[in-house]
Known about the structure:
This protein is α/β, with parallel strands linked by helices. It has helices at residues 16-30, 40-59, 65-77, 85-99, 109-116, 130-139, 152-155, 162-172, 186-195; strands at 4-7, 121-126, 148-151, 179-183, 199-203, 217-219. Helices cover 46% and strands 12% of the residues.
Amino acid sequence: MYKSLFIDLDDTLWDTYHNNKECLEEIYTDYHLDRYYASFEAFYGIYMPHNLDLWAKYRRGEIDRPTLILDRFLYVLRPLGITRKEEVLAINDDFLRRTTTKTRLIPGAIELLEYLRPSYRMFILSNGFREVQFLKLSNAGLAPYFERMILSEDAQIQKPHKGIFDYALKNTNSRRAESLMIGDSWEADIVGAYQSRIAQIWLNPDGLPAQGFTPTYTVRSLAEIRGIL
């Protein structure tokens, strides 16, 4: 039934939460952010909600990429007196560079890709930034499993908007009825695919409730997908 699988990268295959938190702790230590913050957890507790809010605004088209990458660090560096755009962006660049070296994957990622590779065409579909996504995919050993990566920067529109899914179908010669989206983000991956009339597998390890409709499939782990495909 399905021939083309569109798979999200961050927190679906590549463990963004743990990899990025490790990089942020390195930034916290190396830039001596304890000059202001009582602990790394205090710093992280301010940075992460703000970062997630910026990404939500980016998905909705309310802010552009330069605003996102400047403001997420400016917000937490300003109390230390670090406000020069060049200095803030240099720290952001350092953070992004560090993320490309991390290789922790969501449990079962390689095993699932090995299982799927003989039977399906597979593509990454991501809102992430080009300069880091390709390195993350390669350094983590994921690149050989995918024909290509489709990024929101290529389509000029972010998930969950229908346009990026249409772009992905067109640029991979995939039929809508024979395609399936696998992702962890309810808003970006599942709602986006649903609104684009593409079947979905929601990776939902925390057992969160669906909102507004029932996804085609819901799993708590990547291993469960083998029972579907």
